[in-house]
Amino acid sequence: MSQDSKPSKANTGAVAEPSNFLRQIIDHDLASGAFSQRTNLAGESIPSIITRFPPEPNGYLHIGHAKSICLNFGLAADYNNQVGGARCNMRLDDTNPVKEDVEYADSILDAVKWLGFDWGTHLYHASDYFDRLYEFAEILIQNGKAYVDSQSADDIHTNRGNFGQAGKNSPYRDRSPEENLKLFREMRDGKFKDGEHVLRLKIDMAHPNIVMRDPVVYRIRHTDHHRTGSKWCIYPLYDFTHCISDALENVSHSICTLEFENNRPLYDWIVNSLKELGVFKDPVPHQYEFARLNLTYTITSKRKLLQLVEEKHVEGWDDPRMPTIVGIRRRGYTPESIRLFCERIGVSKADSWIDMSTLDQALRDDLEVRAPRATAVLKPLKLVVENFDASAKEACSAPRHPNYPEWGNREFNFTRELWIEADDFMQEPIKGFFRLYPPIGDQPGSRVRLRHGFVVECTGFETDAQGNVTQVNVTHFPDSKSGTPGSNNYKVKGNIHWISAAEAIPTEVRLYDHLFSDPHPDSGDKNFLDAINSNSKQTIAAYLEPCMKDAKPEDRFQFERHGYFVADQKDCQPGKPVFNRTVGLKDSWK
């Protein structure tokens, strides 16, 4: 579905709509009857449609993973109400103990839950299947479909050939099943060093698809696994583990991104070989590919994201400039906006670029209807109301949301000294400037309405020794207070916001922008580090209206005129709020 095929609207809970081509595939499979009344290997009834989300716990999930999460869980939710039902399994493909960590595993599960999805009792780990995987490897060895290769890694790579040259058979390819089984068991028992032997499938060293040239499926790694400890010193590779895990979990539709398209023949070879040997039964899982998310001003390579963290170009995996789910969450994006974004961009088999503004607009549409309003002054300039008594105050109020009066009002006071935005005053106004400026010649100073307060007229200003404006002076009209009958007598073009200096809450505000200044920082021969935006984070001292004093972490607001902001997940404390700008009220990167 293209992003233009649905109207711009807020979405407060719907899962992403599956793409049409996947719907057609699943509808066809259901109509064929092959997926009706499915049972597992134990003969127990299982849903007709089972998808899965199977990340490797070697890093933090990013916005590209969110697309896959929404697709797989969305398909399951969509077909769950049909005959036979559906579900989505959650699986951690933890086959490489060298790169994986409990921290990553925990963060993955937390991210999926935060996005609003639940796998129920169907949480699995590839490491759950290590015993079965080993058993199936022995079956393949015994049937002449796998062999132990004793070449070095460099020789194996060299002898695979290339796209224009066939590979060469390993000198160990014709070992007998008995010899292979003996060596494989000795590998398992720790009798060899890392890299001394590997297990390869016996397919075809002249196959036009290099992936099929006797791929390695087991290697020796004398490394403890974060779940299985020191039980194993041989570990299955991803291509072997992934398809078998799908089959063991009775996955019907294995949906992945296009970079795995070339590996689909190997996926099919493994599951079909084991089916022929009586391990699995029809229907076995089948792999389907869709285009990964390419988002402008963003990179989603785990290796490069790790480089950003390790070289301290960012402040961690949850830096609000990072495209990780923990990062965009801390930035202030909502799970509803991510799901809405995924719904709008749809899924196709053709690679394309999605502009970052599409993601930002999904957030605006989500928060517009449910973010309370508040006043913040980000560039404070003192405003003194000369004809208002210094000890007096006038109660004022404003709605928490203009469309929901039932949400009530924010209460604050008008006092002699106020904070306004520095941009709301000009010594020499340009054409079309309707905010504050001083008297010019015989002309009086400008008049503006202080929102929810009084109309004021500028009488002058003060500067420091460097000529910087430090204070603006005005007089107010006592009968002009907003909401009173007299206010209708004043017609002004300018309307600015303000905060009482006596009540203002000092706060740290972090203004975030794109991490990269280039919309395609990682394309071609570019070094993505050269495209880092030096202005991607600015920290300023600002003021908030009094109701914001007790803002809690992850509370979201629209700061009127400025955009949408969130109380920082880690640094916001009672009485000491810290806010991050999530997105402006309109796209500034046209």
TrEMBL record:
A motif ('KMSKS' region) lies at residues 299-303. It comes from the Bacteria. Signal peptide: none annotated. It is found in: Cytoplasm. L-glutamine binds at D93, Y238. Keywords: Aminoacyl-tRNA synthetase, ATP-binding, Cytoplasm, Ligase, Nucleotide-binding, Protein biosynthesis. ATP binds at E56, P57, N58, H62, I63, G64, H65, A66, K67, S68, T257, R292, L293. The keyword Aminoacyl-tRNA synthetase applies. It is an enzyme of class 6 (ligase). Gene3D superfamilies: Glutamyl-trna Synthetase, Domain 2, Glutamyl-tRNA Synthetase, Domain 3, HUPs, Ribosomal Protein L25, Chain P. This is Glutamine--tRNA ligase. It comes from Polynucleobacter yangtzensis. The lineage of its organism: Bacteria, Pseudomonadati, Pseudomonadota, Betaproteobacteria, Burkholderiales. The gene is glnS.
